[in-house]
């Protein structure tokens, strides 16, 4: 398990006389989100703790000139076959597995 690996690494560092090592182990491949629509570089990216929709947009190269830059559609990772997307503000935190869509602005 991840906890066992973390413990093994911690003990190996202690054996090399490192006092109180702080070791955190995580799986990167399972910590992705996707973003599509009116962003310059749609695709899948790695998720970071505390990430918001706005941060995800920045990682994806920013908004296109046609983007609605006030809100987004967010589909949460779920066991449901097709969970309904939520309309969210840009300061909404995202989770691993989330799918973000930036829609066109309405004139």
Coarse structural class: alpha+beta
Major β-sheet annotation: 5 strands, mixed
Q: What proportion of the residues form beta strands (DSSP E)? A: 15-25%
* Overall body shape: elongated
> How many separate helices?
2
Average residue-wise pLDDT: 89
The termini sit apart by 52 Å
Strand and helix order: HEEHEEE
- The total of beta strands comes to 5
Secondary structure layout plus pairing:
Layout: H1 2-15, E1 32-37, E2 43-46, H2 53-59, E3 71-75, E4 86-89, E5 99-102
Parallel strand pairs: 1-5
Antiparallel strand pairs: 1-2, 3-4, 3-5
Describe the overall structure.
By secondary structure, this protein is an alpha+beta fold. Helices cover 20% and strands 21% of the residues. It is built from 2 helices and 5 strands; from the N terminus they run αββαβββ. It has a 5-stranded mixed β-sheet, covered by helices on one side. The protein is elongated and about 65 Å long. The mean pLDDT is 89.
Features:
single chain, 107 residues, alpha+beta, five-stranded mixed beta sheet
Can you summarize this structure?
The protein has 2 helices and 5 strands; from the N terminus they run αββαβββ. The chain is α+β, with helices and mostly antiparallel strands and 107 residues long.
């Amino acid at each position: 398990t991840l906890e066992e690996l973390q413990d093994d690494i911690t003990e190996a560092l202690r054996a090399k006389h490192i006092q109180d090592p702080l070791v955190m182990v995580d799986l990167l491949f399972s910590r992705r989100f996707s973003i599509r629509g009116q962003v310059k570089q749609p695709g899948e990216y790695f998720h970071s703790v505390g990430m918001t929709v706005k941060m995800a947009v920045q990682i994806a190269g920013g908004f296109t000139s046609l983007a609605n830059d006030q809100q987004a559609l967010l589909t949460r990772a779920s066991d449901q076959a097709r969970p309904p997307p939520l309309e969210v503000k840009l300061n909404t935190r995202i989770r691993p597995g989330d799918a973000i869509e930036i829609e066109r602005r309405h004139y």
